[in-house]
Write a structure and sequence with these properties.
By secondary structure, the chain is α/β, with parallel strands linked by helices. 24% of the residues lie in helices and 26% in strands. A hairpin with a 3-residue loop joins strand 3 and strand 4.
């Protein structure tokens, strides 16, 4: 079975981090996670779970003003935040190095990335649930063979994750 879309509902920031920790166990260098959603929807919270999951000793915070944070554990994770950048600004940032590195890259506001960089990514959209304050719908969309493989594995782990 090839999974191209997967939806999970998180009822709290802890559940969002738990889902990210579950995904972190499946990641490999070269994987790209494109995090999409409104301000406050849970993108940075998700990266906190990723950083915890790879064993980073430093907690993840939003790199809005620094553009990129590095989280080292059993995997290297680059956390980029493109909120303050326009498409024309990307050419002068040097972020291409993060994509060439032997690392996982998680990008907030990834809709600002050039389409060719996102061609094999795993998109994760974070949507608010208007009926419950801390509830978020996370929609995963695979954009290539590797991200389909990740979703297949994540779907099989669904019983171990508190999100449904």
């Amino acid at each position: 079975m090839t999974t191209t879309n997967l939806v999970r509902v998180s009822h709290s920031p802890d559940e969002t981090r738990s889902l990210a920790r579950a995904l972190s166990r499946l990641l490999a260098p070269g994987d790209l996670l494109c995090l999409l959603g409104e301000l406050g929807a849970g993108k940075t919270t998700f990266v906190q779970g990723l950083a915890e999951g790879v064993g980073s000793p430093e907690p993840a915070t939003s790199p809005s003003f620094t553009l990129i944070h590095e989280h080292r554990g059993h995997l290297l994770v680059y956390h980029l935040d493109l909120y303050r950048l326009g498409a024309d600004d990307l050419a002068n940032t040097g972020i291409e190095e993060a994509f060439r590195a032997d690392a996982v890259v998680a990008v907030e506001w990834a809709d600002r990335l050039p389409a060719q960089l996102r061609s094999c990514a795993l998109d994760i959209r974070f949507d608010f649930d208007d009926t419950a304050a801390n509830t978020r719908k996370l929609t995963f969309h695979a954009r290539g063979a590797r991200s389909c493989e990740l979703l297949d594995q994540l779907a099989r782990q669904s019983d171990a994750c508190p999100c449904h």
